[in-house]
Inverse folding.
């Protein structure tokens, strides 16, 4: 047995590995490019694990976060934006390459697990973790474990529709998933940037300062964003009633969200005393890879 846990985060362009000691201190961190092919990925991960084992403990556990899900029935990856991973038995192949068991989980679930274990929502029983980045993901942690669900899609609120729609919000924008009005079309980073500075703008950096300085477009975009995120969070509270909602991804750096969004939530949640905490993540960009390590609790 080992007191060390290795976490690996597989992104579209990079692979990151960390080693956490028994106290959750990061004792090793290394980032390499994602080779972009399936066989290349398997051998790159093996190299990273061998190296980390040599530098920590050869029995350190391995957890992996992927931008998709491993279907519990078919064992194949699905819904990955690195599309060449889809349809592959990644968890089984990786176990064969490494020669010991690994745990593989959706990256938004890893983010939520990290924040629920020793992050912003440490000690809370039920935690909803949300990534508001270039896309939108979510994960539900119950008593320290990711809630997977029958189809391994629990927490995927990005492709649920905007709730409590007002008449002036029609027509709903089309989403790549085939439906219209998905939350991701309103709440991902590029959607906010587009509402502020127009199509093609991908950054929301500076929007708060611009709004404070009187930029009307920034104020309007932020007002709408706060209102819609508040409605989306209220829907989550009505269904799973978490102790805390933790925000991650680039948009989570907007400080105004933590003051303003809970006020909107109170108007929609079906209880007169909504006390759900809305928290900024503690571990930032490291949360996904730390959560992968915590898959071995
Ligand atoms: Zn959609």
């Amino acid at each position: 047995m080992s007191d060390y846990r290795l976490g690996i985060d597989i992104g579209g362009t990079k692979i990151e590995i960390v080693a956490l000691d028994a106290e959750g201190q990061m004792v090793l961190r290394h980032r390499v490019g994602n080779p972009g092919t399936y066989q290349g990925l398997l051998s790159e991960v093996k190299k990273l694990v061998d190296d980390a084992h040599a530098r920590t403990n050869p029995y350190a556990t391995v957890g992996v976060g992927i931008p998709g899900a491993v279907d519990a029935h078919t064992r194949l990856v699905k819904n990955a934006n690195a599309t060449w991973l889809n349809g592959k038995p990644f968890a089984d192949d990786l176990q064969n390459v490494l020669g010991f068991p690994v745990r593989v989980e959706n990256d938004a679930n890893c983010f939520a697990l990290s924040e629920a274990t020793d992050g912003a929502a440490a000690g809370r029983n039920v935690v909803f973790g949300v990534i508001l980045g270039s896309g939108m993901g979510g994960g539900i942690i119950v008593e320290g474990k990711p809630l997977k669900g029958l189809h391994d899609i629990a927490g995927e609120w990005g492709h649920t529709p905007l709730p409590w729609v007002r008449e002036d919000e029609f027509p709903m924008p089309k989403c790549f998933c085939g439906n219209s009005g998905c939350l991701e079309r309103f709440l991902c980073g590029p959607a906010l940037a587009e509402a502020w500075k127009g199509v093609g703008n991908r950054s929301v950096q500076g929007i708060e300062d611009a709004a404070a300085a009187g930029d009307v477009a920034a104020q309007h975009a932020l007002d709408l964003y706060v209102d819609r995120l508040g409605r989306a969070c209220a829907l989550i509270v009505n269904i799973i009633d978490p102790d805390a909602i933790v925000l991650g991804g680039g948009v989570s750096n907007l400080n105004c969200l933590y003051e303003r969004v809970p006020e909107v939530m109170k108007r929609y949640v079906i209880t007169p005393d909504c006390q759900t905490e809305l928290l900024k993540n503690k571990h930032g960009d490291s949360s996904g890879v730390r959560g992968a390590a915590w898959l071995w609790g």
Observations:
- Residues 5-111+286-294 form a domain with the Nucleotidyltransferase; domain 5 fold (CATH 3.30.420.40).
- The chain has a mean pLDDT of 96.
- DSSP finds nine helices and twelve strands in the chain.
- The CA atoms of residues 125 and 224 lie 31 Å apart.
